[in-house]
Amino acid sequence: MASNNDHQKFSTFKGVFVPTLLTILGIILFLRLPWVVGNAGVGGAILIIVISILITFLTSLSLSSIISNIRIGFGGAFAIISRSLGLEIGGSIGIPLYLSQAIAVAMYIFGFREGWVWIFPDHNPLLVDLAVFIVVFVVAYLSTALAFKIQYFILAVIIIALASIVIGFFQVENLTQPKIIGDFVQAKEGRMIGANFWLVFAVFFPAVTGIMAGLNMSGDLRNPRQSIPQGTLWAVGLTAIVYIVLAIMVGYMGEVDELVNNYTFFVDNAFIPTLVLIGLLGATFSSALTSFVGAPRILEAIARKNILPFSGKLKKRNKKGEPAAAIVLSGGIVLIGLLIRELNLIAPLITMFFLITYAMINLVVLIEQSLSLPSFRPTFSIPIIIPFLGTVGCIFVMFVVNPVFSLIAIVAVIAIYIYLMRKRLNYDGGYARSGLFTALAKWATERSISYSGKNEPRSWQPDLLVPVKEPRELRSSFRLLYAIIHPKGSLKVIGIGVDPMLRRMKREIPRVMQELKNTGETVSYSFIENDQFAKSVTIGIEALDAGYFKPNSVFLRIDSRVKEYDSYATIIRKEVSENRGVLVYIPFAQVGLGLERTINVWLKEVPDNWQESNELGNNDLAVLMALLIIKNWNGELNIILEQREEENEDDGYKMLETLQDNARLPKRIDRFVIKESAKEKWRKVPRADLSIAPFHTESELSDLLTVVRNHRSSFLFTADSGKENVQL
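Given the sequence above, the corresponding structure tokens read:
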């Protein structure tokens, strides 16, 4: 099997300029340009041409800029988009683009057949289609070099045809006075054709959607970084001149009625009509051949990323350096298109996929320029307004040409994107989208920080810091941590210790964290080599406070085996004084979280003016934890109010009922009011898999262990930071 570098590489002229030029100078030039001038007038036609060429030219400039910044390799537009925005987005654009390019071959063959049957009306249209298809297929399969050599001949034919039209212009004896702005008369196809400026524009615009011809050859060029910009820009510029000059000439050559209704106007008024007919056939045949050479190369590039079934076969090249399998599959798609016979019904959809591709190329450059990444150093620099206007222009044209097909195309791209996202494609590096997400995160964080004084309680979510001295602390808390942070919280773990325990944590903690990552949670971890636990936690938190995303709560796991209560007490007092919440998890014996079904949340020392002040004292974090966990457990919640002896029990139940409404607690909860001094008060409420209760920072940790033993239930003790508010 030949390597990728063994096959022939093409120059700028042969590989980019000629294919792009011939694709743009196609059937619309020969059969529809007089119709456009007849409807829109010379001035209107030039405006349509200028707007169309301008959008293509802006895209070509964006294309030139991004090409000069990357090593594009195989795939053209697919490679550009994938390199910047990832394989999912690249594939969601590349797959429809490939199908459009393949189906376009059938449409160009239909165009060739129309011209052929016009010359030879007795020939069977289907047989003509199949004969042209066989020729195109054989040429593309045998050799791309042969296809490009044939295009030299076709280029000569088209130049001669254009010359015949120009000479015919100078032979017109009575030139007409052209209309600057046309009347947009109704043409013979139907009432709406030619009815207004934008409908005429929609008919003409596909003429300039040919810049993919050279880009598709990116993997077969000697120097794609140089050839694609030069070849594409020269082709676009030259064809713009051709269209404008011919539009002016047409305005003087015929009356409006003749221009609108005679699609063979150029043939009838050329110096040698046969030459124009041959040029028309050459243009359609060239477009078919160019598309058939380009489509398999898009498919090959997509297969190289293992996106498609049978990618292993589709990405292989034969001894001549041709993507044989991709050519055969593309031939099958073209053949199906030929047999359908009604491709005009989906022709607008093909144009939409081309326009989406152009828009994405502009968007890639716009994003890369906006990020100002050091990696974006194009040798062909353009102002940022160019990709912006190119993006807006492409989207605008999509909905002007056909709003319905625009929406269908967008839905198709989104559907493919979702499918590829579920495939979890492997990346091989080099993508710029991480920079985009980082920039967005930075911007969002800066806005959040600027508003934090007003909105932080409302936007609160659990961002936990979990310091651990042994791997078992993390493993035994895994289910509870997941229930707290899912779906939008975050978790940062710091392993603190010295060898050999530190080595053990470095082995085991990443495994546990990977399990959390696999559930889609935002998690990270690091290690500190130190034997002073409390001091290390303080240093770690201070370091994190210097960043954008700071933990708002510290999670500590304590059990009867803990000996150094003082270090934990130091951490608790320090973090609460720094306006950070504290969660102390104490599991009961080996029961742990039991069935993960029932939660008892205990409220203590609720302020008398809790409604007016919107403050629950030290109880907000406890209630928030209960709500987060019970939602993930899909379980049952009991809310328990501890009252002072002198307080009225009925008032307590009213308070809980009001709180349930204010805090939007679940409707199906049980409420209990218990006196603080009641003996064995834990027996007066239902058993729970987890109990949640506030605690004072000055409380002895040994007292908390006693509470756990008495209740015979695992406990999550909470201390508010002051930033939590369950009623907001």
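The two ends are 67 Å apart (CA to CA). Try to locate this feature in the token string yourself.
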